[in-house]
Design a protein that fits this description.
Blueprint (H helix, E strand, L loop, with lengths): L7 E2 L2 E4 L4 E4 L18 H16 L3 E5 L11 H16 L3 E5 L7 H4 L4 E2 L1 E3 L4 E4 L11 E4 L4 E5 L2 E9 L8 E3 L10 E2 L18 E6 L2 E4 L3 H4 L7
Parallel strand pairs: 3-4, 4-5, 5-6, 8-9, 9-12, 10-13
Antiparallel strand pairs: 1-2, 2-3, 7-8, 10-11, 11-12, 11-14, 14-15
Helix pairs in contact: 1-2
Protein name: Metallophosphoesterase
InterPro entries: Calcineurin-like_PHP, Metallo-depent_PP-like
Pfam family, one: Metallophos
């Protein structure tokens, strides 16, 4: 692990200095919109995996960093129920749930049981945003989602983090993988850039591949590209 990288936990990141856990891109309702719908109990899957990372880190605050919902418009009743169930489970674990809006979250104000933020500043100076728009506030560090990064390792596409020591506004920047089990991953070895103002260049980013609950950190993509297939 790069020495300054915040500790990851599954597809989430734990920030002990802020007593906070951050996850991104739940995309509640995505399973119903895909062929995975009949095969995956999305509510149970999200509830159980989120409960596991909350139990492992015991945070005071859990920030859901955008695209909590999948539908761009008004969410379906089941998606609203799932989202409120997740918020209730976070509170039952003794933590405070915080919602940050993403580009899919046009209906989030009516679905979320509390205020919705464009960005959220943690106690240690970290700013959490979704990543589809540039946050207006300066920060000690930025954490976002939106990109759904993935990397192909030995022929298998694996979800990954992206860490840049001097990223957005020359601050350390961490991009989280999608927490949703069915959100499509973007293969960063095939790309020169991604659709986020917080990631000005992929070459400087270090991918951290999620594997069996651990994160395997690789050198920057500029060093990896000669050894990766871009097809």
């Amino acid at each position: 692990m790069p020495p300054s990288t915040p500790p990851t936990q599954g597809r989430a990141v734990h920030l002990p200095s802020a007593a906070a856990l951050v996850v991104a891109d739940l995309h509640v309702g995505r399973a119903a919109a895909s062929n995975a719908g009949p095969l995956l109990d999305e509510r149970a899957d999200l509830r159980e995996r989120l409960a596991a990372v909350v139990a492992a880190t015991d945070p005071e605050t859990v920030v859901l960093a955008g695209d909590l919902l999948h539908r761009f418009g008004t969410p379906r009743a089941r998606a609203v129920g799932t989202l409120r169930t997740l918020a209730g489970r976070i509170r039952a674990a003794g933590a405070r749930p915080v919602a940050v809006a993403g580009n899919h979250d046009g209906g989030l104000d009516d679905a979320w049981p509390g205020p919705v933020h464009d960005a959220y500043r943690l106690a240690d100076g970290t700013v959490v945003c979704h990543g589809h728009e540039a946050p207006a506030t300066d920060a000690a560090r930025y954490v976002c989602g939106h990109v759904h990064p993935a990397l192909t390792v030995e022929g298998d596409k694996r979800d990954c983090f992206l860490w840049t020591e001097s990223g957005y506004r020359d601050r350390p920047t961490l991009v989280l993988p999608a927490f949703s089990a069915v959100a499509a991953g973007v293969r960063v070895e095939r790309r020169d850039d991604v659709d986020s103002p917080l990631v000005s260049t992929l070459d400087a980013a270090r991918p951290g591949v999620v594997a069996d609950g651990e994160t395997l950190w690789f050198p920057p993509l500029s060093d990896l590209r000669p050894h990766l297939r871009r097809r």
